[in-house]
Every structure is written in C-alpha cells, then in structure tokens.
C-alpha cells in the first residue's frame, strides 16, 4: 500500500498555523486529485486543503478545532485505493469521583461505594465577548483554564489580546499558587463495620463537588415567531474587531464633496478599448486607489500605526479594499505596494483580489499587512458613511455613490448651472495621532487628484 502524507500547506509568510474547522472526507472515502479534503481557518480567512493525489483517505491525524502547524501531516492517503474500514471513534474519557479515592489517607476499611462517573463538559468560549485565537483556546482547554480565568489574563498582544506566551505563563504561575476560591465541598459520611474502640469510630470523608459548566444562553423568541440565528465564525470575528476598534481609537470624521465628471467621462470613453487590450474590466476602484496612493505619498503620516506611546511610520503603501461577500460578511484584501503599480497593474490586482474574495480563495497573507483602507459604500447606494478604522491602521476612506446633480459651474464669462457627476468622500481617522488638519488635508488632496483627472490621459 503506497501512502501519501497530506500536510498543512504553507499559506503565507506570516501564517504559521491554522485551525481545522471541518473534514470534508471521512476515513475510507475516495479522493480525487485536487479535491478538497478539509476546511481550515486562520484568524481572518477560511480556506480548503486539496489533495495532491488520488486515492483513499485511510487515517485522520487531527480532529475538528485542533490547531495544526504548517508542514504537519494531517492525514494519510492510500494512493493504491485499498479498501479501508473506518475506525470507530474512541470513547471520551470521563472524570470519576469516588469516596474510596478521596479517602486514601484513611486507615479504616470503608464499605463499598459505587463509582459515579461525572462527564466534564468542554468550555464554550463563544460565551466570552473577548477575542481569543484558536491556539489560545486550545491551550486553555488542555490546561482546564475557564472562561472567567482567561478573561482576567492581561494580554500583551495587539489590542491587548492574550498570546500563547501569556496563557503559558499564567498556567505556570497558577500551578505554583494556592487556589483563591476552593469549590464547595460535599460531606459524605461512610460507616465502617461495628467499632470496638473510639479509634475505630465512623470516618467523615470530604468529597469535592464538581462544578457544572454554565449552559450557553440562547435568546428566546417572545412571540414564538422570531427566527434565532447564531453568528457564523467570520461574523463573530468581525463583531469583535469592530468593537475593539471603537474601544481603541478616538474616531473622528471629515467629509468632502468631489466633482468627478472628468474621471467618469474618461472611463466611459476608454473602458471598451481597455478591456479589449488588457482583458480586464476597468472599474472606478483602481482609479480611486491610484488617487489615494498619491495622496498618501504627499501625507506619509496618515500611513502609520500606533503601539503604546510610539508611532510606527510605514515604509510601504499597502491599500486594503473592503469587499462584501455573498453571505453578507466583509473581508479586506490588500494591494501590496499600491504606489508602485500603474493603472493597468492596479486594475488587474483589484479584479483578481475581488474575484477570489467572492469565491473564498484568498490566501491569509493577502488580507494582512494593510496600512490604509478604502471602502466603497456607494456600491449599495449610500451617499456617504462613517466607517470604522481597520486596526492597527489609523484611517479609512469611504467612497460614496456617484450621482448626477445640478451644480454651479464657474467660467471666465460667468457662472452657470450644469449637470455634473459628484460624490462624497468620508474620512474616518484616529484622533489620538491624526488631528483635523492632517485628516482634512489628506481627504482634500484625494479630492484634488480626482477633480483634476486628465480626460486625455493614456491608459
């Protein structure tokens, strides 16, 4: 039997591990080459792991919710297609508490007390409002760290998150310290055979009571007709990120109206020739990204992050573009070194990232490392919005819908009213490090680049 080791593939330079979320194949099932075998997840993106060979899955080495490091073998595939009988799952071990075990120091013989197995429920971390990485959760489960304990650990990671070193240090120190609150003990009296002396009197045994894990609170429909929908994994992550951003940054906004008539006319004029020559559809997004990248070069202090009392000035201009997924969730793929790309390069990159985002094919590295984010709220008809900053960045720009509106046009011969294409730019920035002067000047510079668009430019 030829065996092939299915390993967790490399998903980017900054990704060292992932959590298994679902096995798509069971032991004994046939697998085609390039067919997805399981689903994995990092902190921000879900993806599938395909098989490089055809065969039969004969062994699964990790379970759902296990954290696996890149390069580790996660399954064995028989490439000769031998028949395999699926192994029965191992029974879960249960913790038992018995009077005989508790009273090892007693010298008197005790009447037989039946063992009462007590199943220990796994900790449900979804009850916590804080974000914990899959690795931290896994360590907490193995070490028996409760939700209450985990929430009290002072995190040293980004946004005060608990890191691997934080929880390992807590576990190490906890084992060397007395327990602050002991569980309430239950007194069990067991009578020995008839005693002939005081020394042989009945003994009292202290058996600890196993505390029950609180049940997860599920909302109840008042009228019996409301639908209760649990958030999926990505929505829970997004929820945590948004709340954390508002708690971290002092949000303030600046708004500006922009006349983009020249840009719209140019795009309408060249889009057919552009698609014919480049094989790509020319949307407004790469044009906006080009203007933002230019403005960041003019105001580099908008391209920063904050760590404690220090400002990190970013060398690269990596633009995140918020994209809505078919299921309603949001993801932010990143255009790396956007200032080094021309309009054709930006168009190809924008289209590629957007298409793969919709098909859940983004790599973890492609949604990390952003230094500034742009979100197009005009896609849904919104005139403007007040976006939440994508941490650890310090600013985000929202693009409103482009509308035809009557406007006053200034001319040497006098002012007149005409039809123009206009839109609003909404700039949210972190007032801890970006003052109104910088925030306002930056969005005004983006507007200047868009309004001054050259209708005769080549693409």
Tell me what you see in this structure:
This protein has 459 residues and is α+β, with helices and mostly antiparallel strands. The protein has nine helices and 23 strands. The strands form seven sheets. Strands 13, 16, 19, 20, 21, 22 and 23 form a seven-stranded mixed β-sheet that branches. A four-stranded antiparallel β-sheet has the order 1-8-6-3, with no helix packed on it. A hairpin with a 6-residue loop joins strand 22 and strand 23. Helix 2 (134-143) runs parallel beside helix 4 and helix 7 packs across helix 9. The chain is globular, with a radius of gyration of 30 Å.
Quick structural gist:
With 459 residues, the protein is of the alpha+beta class.
Key features?
459 residues; globular; alpha+beta; 25% strand
Roughly how many Å apart are the termini? 58 Å
What share of the residues lie within helices?
A: 10-25%
Oligomer: single chain
Largest beta-sheet details = 7 strands, mixed
Number of strands: 23
Q: How confident overall, as mean pLDDT? A: 81
The number of helices is 9
Residue share in β-strands: 25-35%
Class based on secondary structure composition and strand pairing: alpha+beta
Residue stretches low in confidence (pLDDT < 50, at least 5 long) are: 83-120, 179-190, 192-205
Q: Estimate the global geometry from the Cα principal axes.
A: globular
Give me the Rg, rounded.
Answer: 30 Å
Secondary structure elements and pairings:
Layout: E1 3-7, E2 17-23, E3 30-31, E4 36-41, E5 46-50, E6 55-60, E7 67-69, E8 73-78, E9 95-97, H1 99-102, E10 116-118, H2 134-143, H3 147-152, H4 164-175, E11 185-190, E12 203-208, H5 233-248, E13 251-259, H6 261-278, H7 285-298, E14 304-307, E15 310-313, E16 319-321, E17 323-324, E18 330-331, E19 334-335, H8 343-358, E20 372-376, E21 395-399, E22 403-409, E23 416-430, H9 436-451
Helix pairs in contact: 2-4, 7-8, 7-9
């Amino acid at each position: 039997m030829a065996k092939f080791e299915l390993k967790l593939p490399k998903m980017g330079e900054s990704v060292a591990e992932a959590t298994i979320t679902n096995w798509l194949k069971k032991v004994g099932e046939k697998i085609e080459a390039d067919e997805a075998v399981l689903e994995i997840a990092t902190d921000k993106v879900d993806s599938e792991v395909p098989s490089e060979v055809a065969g039969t899955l004969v062994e699964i080495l990790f379970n759902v919710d296990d954290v696996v490091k890149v390069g580790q073998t996660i399954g064995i595939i028989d490439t000769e297609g031998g028949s395999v009988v699926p192994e029965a799952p191992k029974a879960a071990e249960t913790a038992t508490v018995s009077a005989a075990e508790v009273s090892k120091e007693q010298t008197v013989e005790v009447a037989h007390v039946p063992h009462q197995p007590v199943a220990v429920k796994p900790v449900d971390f979804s009850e916590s409002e804080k974000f914990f990485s899959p690795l931290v959760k896994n360590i907490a489960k193995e070490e028996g760290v409760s939700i209450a304990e985990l929430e009290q650990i002072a995190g040293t990671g980004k946004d005060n998150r608990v890191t691997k070193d934080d929880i390992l240090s807590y576990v190490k120190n906890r084992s060397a310290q007395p327990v602050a609150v002991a569980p309430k003990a239950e007194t069990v009296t067991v009578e020995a055979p008839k005693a002939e002396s005081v020394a042989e009197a009945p003994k009292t045994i202290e058996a600890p009571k196993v505390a029950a894990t609180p049940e997860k609170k599920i909302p109840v429909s008042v009228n019996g007709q409301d639908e209760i929908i649990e958030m999926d994994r990505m929505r829970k992550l997004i929820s945590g990120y948004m709340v954390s951003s508002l708690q971290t940054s002092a949000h303030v906004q600046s708004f500006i109206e922009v006349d983009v008539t020249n840009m719209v006319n140019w795009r309408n004029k060249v889009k057919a020739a552009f698609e014919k020559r480049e094989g790509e559809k020319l949307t407004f997004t790469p044009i906006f990204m080009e203007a933002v990248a230019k403005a960041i070069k003019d105001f580099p202090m908008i391209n920063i992050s904050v760590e404690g009392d220090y400002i990190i000035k970013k060398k690269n201009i990596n633009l995140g573009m918020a994209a809505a997924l078919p299921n309603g969730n949001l993801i932010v793929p990143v255009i790396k070194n956007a200032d080094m790309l021309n309009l054709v390069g930006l168009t190809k990159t924008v289209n590629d990232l957007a298409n793969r985002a919709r098909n859940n094919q983004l790599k973890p590295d492609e949604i990390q490392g952003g230094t500034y984010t742009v979100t197009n709220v005009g896609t849904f008809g919104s005139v403007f919005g007040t976006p939440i900053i994508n941490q650890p960045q310090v600013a985000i720009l929202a693009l409103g819908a482009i509308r035809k509106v009557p406007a006053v046009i200034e001319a040497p011969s006098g002012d007149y009213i005409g039809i123009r294409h206009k839109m609003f730019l909404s700039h949210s920035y972190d007032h801890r490090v970006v003052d109104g002067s910088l925030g306002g000047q930056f969005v005004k510079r983006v507007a200047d680049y868009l309004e001054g668009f050259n209708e005769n430019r080549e693409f």
